[in-house]
């Protein structure tokens, strides 16, 4: 499999490092080159890492409920930085309180994200989507 580069991180003030490391491990084992920028990452850190590594996808994780606020304007900033062709995935507990995930998903898709995952999504789901979206054959 051709190695595709992924930028992975936890946006905003979120510090869920364990889940981030599990994703890094699963994505690496699946054959991706993973650039993990860690926790408490800003939008600019994701964008700069994607530019520096010529990334194929950016995976944004958030579990503390403020992902919707932290991700406001992010897809537009990616486009302004010339990352039009970079896939944007986001997942986790993205909003405060219990909200219908389909409504949350719709809002993130309207923001410009390509894939949106609810809390508890297994890494295999994102890996299968990445392979499909990046045209990778098993």
TrEMBL record:
Signal peptide: none annotated. Its cofactor is adenosylcob(III)alamin. Pfam families: B12-binding (PF02310). Pathway: Amino-acid degradation; L-glutamate degradation via mesaconate pathway; acetate and pyruvate from L-glutamate: step 1/4. The keyword Thylakoid does not apply. Gene3D superfamilies: Cobalamin-binding domain. SUPFAM superfamilies: Cobalamin (vitamin B12)-binding domain. The keyword Isomerase applies. Adenosylcob(III)alamin binds at residues 13-17, 61-63, 93-97. CDD domains: Glm_B12_BD. Residues 3-138 form the B12-binding domain. GO terms for biological process: anaerobic L-glutamate catabolic process; L-glutamate catabolic process via L-citramalate. Its EC number is 5.4.99.1. It catalyses: (2S,3S)-3-methyl-L-aspartate = L-glutamate. Keywords: Cobalamin, Cobalt, Isomerase, Metal-binding. One of its GO terms (molecular function) is cobalamin binding. It is an enzyme of class 5 (isomerase). It comes from the Bacteria. PROSITE patterns: B12_BINDING (PS51332). Belongs to the methylaspartate mutase GlmS subunit family. Heterotetramer composed of 2 epsilon subunits (GlmE) and 2 sigma subunits (GlmS). GlmE exists as a homodimer and GlmS as a monomer. Catalyzes the carbon skeleton rearrangement of L-glutamate to L-threo-3-methylaspartate ((2S,3S)-3-methylaspartate). This is Glutamate mutase sigma subunit.
């Amino acid at each position: 499999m051709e190695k595709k580069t992924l930028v992975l991180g936890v946006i905003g003030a979120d510090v869920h490092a364990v889940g981030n490391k599990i994703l890094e491990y699963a994505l690496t084992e699946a054959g991706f080159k993973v650039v993990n920028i860690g926790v408490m990452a800003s939008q600019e850190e994701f964008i700069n890492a994607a530019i520096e590594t010529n990334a194929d996808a950016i995976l944004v994780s958030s579990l503390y409920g403020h992902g919707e606020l932290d991700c406001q304007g992010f897809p537009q900033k990616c486009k302004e930085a010339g990352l039009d062709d970079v896939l944007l995935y986001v997942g986790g507990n993205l909003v405060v309180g219990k909200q219908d995930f389909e409504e949350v998903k719709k809002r993130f898709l309207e923001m410009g994200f390509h894939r949106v995952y609810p809390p508890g999504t297994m890494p295999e789901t994102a890996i299968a989507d990445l392979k499909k979206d990046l045209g990778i054959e098993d």
